[in-house]
Design brief:
By secondary structure, this protein is α/β, with parallel strands linked by helices. The chain has one domain: Rossmann fold. Helices cover about 45% and strands about 20% of the residues. The strands form 3 sheets. It has a 5-stranded parallel sheet with strand order 2-8-1-9-10. The protein is globular. The structure holds 2'-deoxycytidine-5'-monophosphate. The site of 2'-deoxycytidine-5'-monophosphate has 10 residues, from helix 2 and helix 4.
Length: about 230
Amino acid sequence: MSTDRKIIIAVDGYSSCGKSTFAKAIAARLGYIFIDTGAMYRAVTLHALDRGAIRSGVVDEEAVCRLLDCIDISFRYNPERGASDIYVDGGLAEGRIRSLEVSNCVSAVSAIAAVRAKLVAMQQEMGRRRGVVMDGRDIGTAVFPDAELKLFMTADPAVRARRRYDELRAKGQEVSLEEIERNVVERDRADTTRTVSPLRRADDAIVLDNSHMTVDEQMEWFMEKYRAAVGK
Ligand code: DC
């Protein structure tokens, strides 16, 4: 389904709520471009690791800032995945940005104001022609405060922990549910209390609590909001 009037759809919310999966499904349904902004923060972190601006887990903020002028981040559509892959300095980085090493350092890198300024400007440029679904923590508040449709995703922490636990177990990882529950609560605390762009629901965002909803039910819920937003 598509419409002549393309809009910006901001998908923000807590970690492990299925934001990316849902944002990707919305984009596929509407024929919109999906942009995973977390992948961009991960790409800067990877580049900083490769260039020695992070050593033994310690982020050298000045060195990261010096790298910002020459880093080249781009997305290319991958039909097999039905989504875009991220490239850093021309090389495919989709797999490497999800490594544990990057995951452990990305919070610190995403808290650097100059990193945020650079990536927010890139994200605003990508959305200039509308027709995008952007997934992140600050899209409806800092990147596109004028987005026509803003979703704020949440779910019961116990439900989110259970989903993450099932996901990791399916990948063969030995993890305990209690440990994951603690991690979910800690990430919520870190996301909402950081000084730079904390996770916050925009006043005009619509809350989607998907604790007890299937993906189909979420899509049905979303399409109603979408039709109202584009006026059809
Ligand atoms: O969604 P994710 O786990 O891939 O995000 C990676 C990190 O980037 C996470 O620590 C939060 C941060 N992030 C951010 O600060 N702002 C965004 N718009 C997206 C992600």
